[in-house]
Amino acid sequence: MCRWIAYSGTPILLSQVLFRPEHSLIDQSLHSRLGVETTNGDGFGIGWYPGDTDTDTPAVLRDVGPAWNNRNLLEVAHHVRSGLFFAHIRASTGTAVQQTNCHPFRSGRWMWMHNGMISEFSRLRRDLALAVDPALYAGIEGSTDSELMFFLALTFGLTDDPPGAVARMAGLVETTGQAYGVPHPLQMTVAVTDGVRVWAFRYSSEGRSRSLYYSTRVETLRALHPDASFLRDVSDDTRLVVSEPLGTLPGAWNEVPESSHGIIQPGGDELHAFRPVPPGGPRPN
C-alpha cells in the first residue's frame, strides 16, 4: 500500500516532518512498521500551500523514484516552509509506476491522497469512470484507483460537502463492487484539503482498515513533556495525521477510530462516524 502525512499548523520547513523525526516518512519508505509492505519505493509526492503568494492553489512535486534517495526532495524540504502540506510515499497495487500516478492529486485549490485500494479495480474501472462528471473527466491524468476516487468525490460535491462527497464515492465503489461479486471492494485512508481545513477518513468494506493516527493536542503534550523544546515552537492548533506514528514520545499519538472521519480546522477539530452512502441514498447527517 502507501504511507502518508498531513500537516496543519505553524509554518515550518517540510524537512522538520519529512526527515527529522525518529520514524520519519523517509524512514517509513524503507522500514514501514504498520504497512502491508515494508518498503514503499514506487514514487513519492509532496504538496504544499505557499502562504506568502497571491495564489491559493498548492504546489506539487512528484517523482517515480523512491523518496529515500531523491536529491530534489531533500533540497525542497530544507528550503520550503508551509503551514499546510501533504506528503505521500507510494507502493503500487498494480497500476503503473509513473509520475501521474503519484500522490497527492490536485484540482484547483484541492489536494487528495490515499492509502488502500479498490479491489479488482481493473474490472470496476469502466463503470466507475463513467460516473465521473464529463466536465471533470479531462482532468484525470493517471490510471490509479486513488485519482479516480478523487474525481468521483469531486463529481459528488467535494468542494461543498467533503464528508458527504466521500461517503457517496465510497457508496458507489461498494455498490459497483458488489454487483461484480467483489466481497470487500474498498480499503481507504484518505486525506483531502482545501488549503484551510483538512479532512481525514479511515474506512474499509471489511471493517479492518489500514492504520491511521492523529497527534495529541499540543498544550497536552507540553504538560506531559515540559522538556521537549520543539513543542515550544509550534502553535496550539498544530496537528498531524499520519499513517504511522513518527516517534515514540509517550501520549503523542492516537489511533483514528475505525469507520470515522476527522476535520482539522480553525476554531476546533471534530471527529465523526463515517459510513458510505449508496447511489440514490439520503445525504449523511
TrEMBL record:
EC class of the enzyme, as a word: transferase
Region (Disordered): 266-285
Enzyme Commission number(s) from the entry: 2.4.2.-
Entries under Gene3D superfamilies matching the protein: Glutamine Phosphoribosylpyrophosphate, subunit 1, domain 1
Pfam families: GATase_4 (PF13230)
CDD domains: YafJ
Ranges where the Glutamine amidotransferase type-2 domain occurs: 2-245
InterPro entries found in the cross-reference section: EgtC-like, Gamma-glu_amide_hydrolase, GATase_2_dom, Ntn_hydrolases_N
GO MF term (any one): glycosyltransferase activity
Assigned keywords, A-Z: Glutamine amidotransferase, Glycosyltransferase, Transferase
Pro residues: bias regions: 276-285
Keyword 4Fe-4S set for record: no
PANTHER family: GLUTAMINE AMIDOTRANSFERASE DUG3-RELATED
Protein's name according to its UniProt entry: Class II glutamine amidotransferase
